[in-house]
Amino acid sequence: MSVEDSDIDPRTCGDSAASYVLGALTEPEHEAFRVHLESCAVCREEVAALQVVVSALPSAAPQVSAPPALKQRVMASVREEAARGTAGGLEGAASGAAREPAPRSRRRPLASVRWGPALASGGALAAVVAVLVIALSAGGAGTRVIQAQAPTGADVSLRVTGGHAQLDISGMPQTPPRRVYEVWVKRAGGAEPTDALFTVTAKGDATVGVPGGIAGVKLVMVTSEPLGGTKVPTSSPVIVADLS
Questions:
Q1: pLDDT at 130 over 70
Q2: Helix crossing, 41-60 with 27-37: angle to 10°?
Q3: Higher pLDDT, residue 28 or 117
Q4: Cα gap 211→195, rounded to integer Å
Q5: pLDDT tens-digit profile of 8-62?
Q6: For position 69, what pLDDT does the model report?
Q7: What strands, in cross-sheet order, belong to the sheet with 219-226?
Q8: Whose CB among 36, 56, 94, 184 lies 3.0–4.6 Å from 191's, allowing a Cys bridge?
């Protein structure tokens, strides 16, 4: 398939590379660009170059925890909003009871309860913010780190948090010219592509998120593949992380 045969405008060839690497394309756009990569060396090189930058971004940002004072302020706000909501609810219930007696036998099914208005209230919103603050200040609670098999001299771990996974790589050899690393997952069947392609820095470092959830995944693997990636592995895995 050539550039002319694809849905990609030859005049803007390469413009979608950054969005592709960042996962910002829609599903049809992603698939069209993925097919386009199979026959376009320019875009393959652009994707490989951008992936180096994207892979280095997480490690460049300092890891911080929410200060205790912020957590205390948010929790105080939550308690205040909850108190207001309870008082308002009691007043509303009292006035409603005066107007109309409550039905004796009708019970609204749980599945029919509309949660939208409740979540739109200030108290519920503050509660959600509080959960986020507590999660941030917990410093990675619930995170599982799996040491992966890797080439001699390389250190690779798979960080699993909340159903998502990320590969933390250091000391990995550079890929040969016109090749990239590709991430695969293995469930019950064969290896499944994730569309995650990357190269490593001069020091062999990279941070790569595993696209999609990891429900049912037994292995996360990395192979060396031609630019643009492949649908099936063409080489033996150089990184293997066992989740079982």
A1: no
A2: 120
A3: 28
A4: 8
A5: 555 556 677 788 877 777 878 878 888 887 778 777 777 777 776 666 555 555 5
A6: 66
A7: 191-198, 179-186, 219-226, 239-242
A8: 184
Q: How many CB atoms lie within 10 A of CB 231?
A: 11
Distance CA 74, CA 1 (A): 56
Write out the DSSP string of 167-194: EEEESPPPPPTTEEEEEEEESSSSEEEE
What's the CA gap between 154 and 172, in Å, rounded? Answer: 5
Q: Which residue has the tokens 């200060």?
A: 67
Structure tokens at 157: 């771990």
Q: How far is CA 64 from CA 8, 20, 139, 140, 230, in A?
A: 41, 29, 8, 11, 37
Q: Which amino acid is at 151?
A: P
Hunting for tokens 């037994």 — which residue is that? 218
* 3-state SS assignment for residue 185: strand
Q: Please state, in angstroms and rounded to a whole number, the distance separating the CA atoms of residues 156 and 172.
A: 8
Q: Per-residue confidence at 223, pLDDT binned at 50, 70, 90?
A: very high
Bridging pattern class, strands 239-242 and 219-226: antiparallel
> What phi and psi, each to the nearest 5 degrees, are found at residue 112?
-95, 0
- What is the rounded CA–CA span in Å between residue 36 and residue 62? 36
